[in-house]
């Protein structure tokens, strides 16, 4: 009889430990999910403009266009080569900024309202169409097109989190 009581208490305690552990893990998971950045929020030196299906990874865009210019261009307008250099040199607390590729730039266009401060102009992507041309995205019309790498467009750096 005493042996049966000990067994029942041990099993009962074991179930209680499993229950509390499960509830604790669920609570920690919910807190972790709630603290994940959302589109439009400031995070990691910029503004989140894409979050993957897991909610744990995404893309951040710099808060403003890159400053500087290519020779013969107005302020903020660069050729493709200078655009890549400017995006890679951007720091703002992080050193892994890059010029967005064509798909990333499209996602930025889709969520431009949440990001704010985007100009209705052309933005460079890092995606080349051939040796002399690269993809740009027209933020006024939402259309991607190719342009000469010598042409001038605006630059907005992105980074992965």
Can you walk me through this structure?
The protein is an alpha+beta fold. It folds into two domains: 1-35; 42-160, Mannose-Binding Protein A, Chain A. It has helices at 2-34, 80-89, 102-110, 112-115; strands at 42-43, 46-51, 58-61, 122-128, 133-138, 143-148, 158-160. The strands form two sheets. A four-stranded antiparallel beta sheet has the order 1-2-3-7. Strands 4-5-6 form a three-stranded antiparallel beta sheet.
* Order of adjacent strands in the largest pleated sheet: 1-2-3-7
**Average pLDDT taken over every residue:** 88
Q: What is the string of helix and strand elements?
A: HEEEHHHEEEE
Alpha-carbon Rg, integer: 25 Å
List the SSEs and their pairings.
Elements: H1 2-34, E1 42-43, E2 46-51, E3 58-61, H2 80-89, H3 102-110, H4 112-115, E4 122-128, E5 133-138, E6 143-148, E7 158-160
Antiparallel strand pairs: 1-2, 2-3, 3-7, 4-5, 5-6
Question: Quick recap of the structure?
Answer:
This protein is of the alpha+beta class and 161 residues long.
Keywords:
2 domains; 3-stranded antiparallel beta sheet; 35% helix; Mannose-Binding Protein A, Chain A; 4-stranded antiparallel beta sheet; elongated; 161 residues; 4 helices; alpha+beta
């Amino acid at each position: 009889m005493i042996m049966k009581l000990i067994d029942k208490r041990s099993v009962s305690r074991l179930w209680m430990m499993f229950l509390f552990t499960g509830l604790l893990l669920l609570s920690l998971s919910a807190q972790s999910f709630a603290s994940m950045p959302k589109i439009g929020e400031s995070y990691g030196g910029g503004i989140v403009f894409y979050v993957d299906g897991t909610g744990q990874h995404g893309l951040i865009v710099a808060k403003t266009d890159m400053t500087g210019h290519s020779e013969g261009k107005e302020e903020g307008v660069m050729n493709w080569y200078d655009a890549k250099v400017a995006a890679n040199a951007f720091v703002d607390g992080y050193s892994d900024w890059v010029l967005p590729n064509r798909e990333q730039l499209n996602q930025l266009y889709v969520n431009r309202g949440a990001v704010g401060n985007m100009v209705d102009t052309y933005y460079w992507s890092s995606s080349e169409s051939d040796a002399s041309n690269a993809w740009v995205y027209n933020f006024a019309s939402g259309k991607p097109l190719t342009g000469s790498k010598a042409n001038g467009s605006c630059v907005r750096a992105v980074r992965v989190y």
